[in-house]
Specification:
With 233 residues, this protein is mainly alpha-helical. Helices cover 72% and strands 0% of the residues. Helix 4 (92-113) packs parallel to helix 8.
């Protein structure tokens, strides 16, 4: 097993790699909402003309699509992990860079499935709050209110990377063993996307249900009191 000193060094390298990978995912590998909408309509046969339409569908339909997207991300990550795993610990850093992109694209797709786009600065910030939630990091809403998105997102990425690096070093230690590193790489990447995907799904699903409830309450709310005009004397 690695010594405490080597683990500390590796954790620092992993954290820096995750920061770079997540930052690259933020700026260059975003899911195209228009193309993904077409995929939802054709591949998943959702009868919607826009993302607002998902609020009229059964939750089971959305959950099935979300689960399918998570499984697809898991399989892609497993294949990637098996290939990079052949190099043992040497290839863990480039592996994590690609894994970051796969994970963030999965989270972006889950966001869209449940009706949350990321066109505005506020929506982008909300997406990264969901990513933090998937990593097990609690981001205060007060921080979002006090920061502009260009400063907010890098701070969130840093906190995600700090939290995830400890988990990665602990679980990826087996990749030091060359003969089993490929299988471990596939399995660990598969687990990583599954864990983050399920937590992100829960986050978006809860927000989606809250908005549905609010819309229902607004529809069922009784009309306000009738105000008659003052009688003219």
């Amino acid at each position: 097993m690695a010594s405490a000193e080597s683990r500390s060094w590796l954790r620092g390298r992993v954290e820096k790699t995750l920061v770079k990978g997540l930052t690259r995912a933020y700026s260059t590998v975003q899911v195209n909402p228009e193309k993904f909408l077409l995929q939802l309509r054709t591949a998943y046969r959702l009868p919607i003309s826009g993302y607002h339409g998902v609020y009229s569908l059964e939750m089971g339909e959305l959950d099935d699509v979300a689960d399918n997207l998570i499984r697809s991300g898991m399989k892609l990550a497993a294949v990637e992990g098996a290939g990079f795993g052949l190099g043992g610990l040497i290839t863990i850093l480039p592996d994590l860079g690609i894994l970051s992109a796969i994970t963030m694209r999965t989270i972006q797709k889950l966001s869209l499935v449940y009706g949350f786009q990321f066109n505005t600065d506020h929506e982008i910030a909300e997406l990264w709050i969901a990513a933090a939630s998937a990593a097990g990091v609690d981001i205060s809403r007060e921080l979002l209110e006090k920061e502009v998105v260009n400063r907010f997102v890098p701070r969130v990425i840093q906190r995600i990377a700090a939290r995830a690096s400890a988990e990665v070093v602990e679980k990826w230690a087996g990749r030091m063993i060359p003969l089993v590193s490929s299988a471990l790489g596939a399995g660990l990447n598969y687990w990583f996307v599954r864990a983050w995907g399920e937590r992100a799904k829960a986050h978006f699903r809860q927000r989606h249900l809250q908005l549905r409830q609010q819309a229902q309450e607004a529809t069922l709310a009784p009309p306000g009191p009738l105000i008659l005009p003052a009688r003219i004397r």
